């Protein structure tokens, strides 16, 4: 595991100190520390860490709520810490986008595998979201192109392949993307 930049949020300074020591001994850098969820969000937005480790029970904003906001903004993977392993808390943590959950006291033998898994899952999620965006863009492009081809086919009595060739030629001649040409054709037809 390469050197990570980490934010720690826990209202107990002893826990923050212990975690920081464990992480720094393993070669990581703790770039920010705080004692509440609001500050954790602010530090995460500002410092762009590779990982956030935070307690569930904190003043002003609890760790589950803060983790949800960090997760929704796709800022960093979050590992939640708690002194409790109650089923309702675990359920809330699952729904917050948290990628790992550890019960205190934290030991290196539990912490570092949880970090590896959280980072791995976070990267998988980012990759899947990127692939989904590519698919959505491709589908949107396909719809635009089909509509533009249909407009040309109707207007000039062309076959589908002839309409596509005209779009392609115009795209190359004007140095525009096929999507831009298709959008222009659709705009012109709907005026």
Overview of this protein structure:
This protein folds into 2 domains: 5-106, Rossmann fold (3-Layer(aba) Sandwich), CATH 3.40.50.2300; 133-190, Winged helix-like DNA-binding domain superfamily/Winged helix DNA-binding domain (Arc Repressor Mutant, subunit A), CATH 1.10.10. Helices cover 62% and strands 13% of the residues. It has 7 helices and 5 strands. The chain has helices at residues 13-25, 37-47, 63-72, 87-94, 108-156, 160-174, 178-189; strands at residues 5-9, 29-34, 51-55, 78-82, 100-103. The protein has a 5-stranded parallel β-sheet with strand order 2-1-3-4-5, sandwiched between helices. Helix 2 (37-47) runs parallel beside helix 3 (63-72) and helix 6 packs across helix 7. 28% of the residues are buried.
Find the CATH superfamily of the largest domain. Response regulator
What is the typical, i.e. mean, pLDDT? 93
How many E strands? 5
Q: Beta-strand percentage?
A: 5-15%
- The overall number of domains is 2
Distinctive features:
Rossmann fold; phosphoprotein; 5-stranded parallel β-sheet; Arc Repressor Mutant, subunit A; 2 domains; CheY-like_superfamily; 191 residues; elongated; Response regulator; alpha/beta
Fold topology:
Blueprint: E1 5-9, H1 13-25, E2 29-34, H2 37-47, E3 51-55, H3 63-72, E4 78-82, H4 87-94, E5 100-103, H5 108-156, H6 160-174, H7 178-189
Helix pairs in contact: 2-3, 5-6, 5-7, 6-7
């Amino acid at each position: 595991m390469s050197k990570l930049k980490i934010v720690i949020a826990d209202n107990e300074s002893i826990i923050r100190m212990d975690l920081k020591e464990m992480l720094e001994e393993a070669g990581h850098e703790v770039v920010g520390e705080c004692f509440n969820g609001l500050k954790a969000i602010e530090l995460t937005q500002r410092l762009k860490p590779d990982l956030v480790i935070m307690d569930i029970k904190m003043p002003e904003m609890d760790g589950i709520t803060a983790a949800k906001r960090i997760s929704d903004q796709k800022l960093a993977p979050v590992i939640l810490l708690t002194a409790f392993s109650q089923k309702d808390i675990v359920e809330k943590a699952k729904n917050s986008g948290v990628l790992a959950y550890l019960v205190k006291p934290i030991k290196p033998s539990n912490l570092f595998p949880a970090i590896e898994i959280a980072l791995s899952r976070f990267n998988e999620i980012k990759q899947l979201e990127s692939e989904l965006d590519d698919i959505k863009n491709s589908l949107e492009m396909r719809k635009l192109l089909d509509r533009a081809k249909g407009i040309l086919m109707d207007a000039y009595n062309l076959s589908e392949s002839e309409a596509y060739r005209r779009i392609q030629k115009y795209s190359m001649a004007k140095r525009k993307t096929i999507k831009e040409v298709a959008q222009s054709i659709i705009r012109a037809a709907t005026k």
